[in-house]
């Protein structure tokens, strides 16, 4: 499984990076490949490439503010989560994704 995520929060500081770390840890705990782009107060970091997108099975986007360059993910399976949920419930998010993909 190849997972991509973009995290961003209204202030672009703490929650952006806490969500990125939580999603990365939870995905790796499942044995999944993961790359997380952050769109924080200092700009875009760890930018997702079109090659990354082509290889991705699913994309997680935080929904608290608009994600820059979201059009990159046209045609991909996208899961939208609140940044606070990404921080606090990342393992449960991964479980739901896994269950959904198992049914597909």
TrEMBL record:
<keyword id="KW-0762">Sugar transport</keyword>
<dbReference type="GO" id="GO:0090563">
    <property type="term" value="F:protein-phosphocysteine-sugar phosphotransferase activity"/>
</dbReference>
<dbReference type="GO" id="GO:0005886">
    <property type="term" value="C:plasma membrane"/>
</dbReference>
<keyword id="KW-0597">Phosphoprotein</keyword>
<dbReference type="GO" id="GO:0009401">
    <property type="term" value="P:phosphoenolpyruvate-dependent sugar phosphotransferase system"/>
</dbReference>
<dbReference type="GO" id="GO:0016301">
    <property type="term" value="F:kinase activity"/>
</dbReference>
<dbReference type="InterPro" id="IPR003353">
    <property type="entry name" value="PTS_IIB_fruc"/>
</dbReference>
<feature type="domain" description="PTS EIIB type-2">
    <location>
        <begin position="1"/>
        <end position="99"/>
    </location>
</feature>
<keyword id="KW-0598">Phosphotransferase system</keyword>
<keyword id="KW-0418">Kinase</keyword>
<dbReference type="InterPro" id="IPR050864">
    <property type="entry name" value="Bacterial_PTS_Sugar_Transport"/>
</dbReference>
<dbReference type="InterPro" id="IPR003501">
    <property type="entry name" value="PTS_EIIB_2/3"/>
</dbReference>
<dbReference type="InterPro" id="IPR036095">
    <property type="entry name" value="PTS_EIIB-like_sf"/>
</dbReference>
<dbReference type="GO" id="GO:0022877">
    <property type="term" value="F:protein-N(PI)-phosphohistidine-fructose phosphotransferase system transporter activity"/>
</dbReference>
<keyword id="KW-0808">Transferase</keyword>
<keyword id="KW-0813">Transport</keyword>
<protein>
    <recommendedName>
        <fullName>protein-N(pi)-phosphohistidine--D-fructose phosphotransferase</fullName>
        <ecNumber>2.7.1.202</ecNumber>
    </recommendedName>
</protein>
<dbReference type="Pfam" id="PF02302">
    <property type="entry name" value="PTS_IIB"/>
</dbReference>
<dbReference type="InterPro" id="IPR013011">
    <property type="entry name" value="PTS_EIIB_2"/>
</dbReference>
């Amino acid at each position: 499984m190849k997972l991509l995520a973009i995290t961003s929060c209204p202030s672009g500081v703490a929650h952006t990076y806490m969500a990125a770390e939580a999603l990365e840890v939870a995905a790796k705990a499942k044995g999944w490949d993961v790359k997380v782009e952050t769109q924080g107060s200092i700009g875009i970091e760890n930018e997702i490439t079109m090659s990354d997108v082509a290889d991705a099975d699913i994309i997680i986007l935080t929904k608290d503010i608009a994600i820059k360059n979201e059009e990159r993910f046209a045609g991909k399976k996208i899961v939208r989560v609140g940044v606070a949920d990404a921080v606090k419930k990342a393992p449960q998010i991964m479980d739901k994704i896994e269950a959904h993909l198992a049914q597909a």
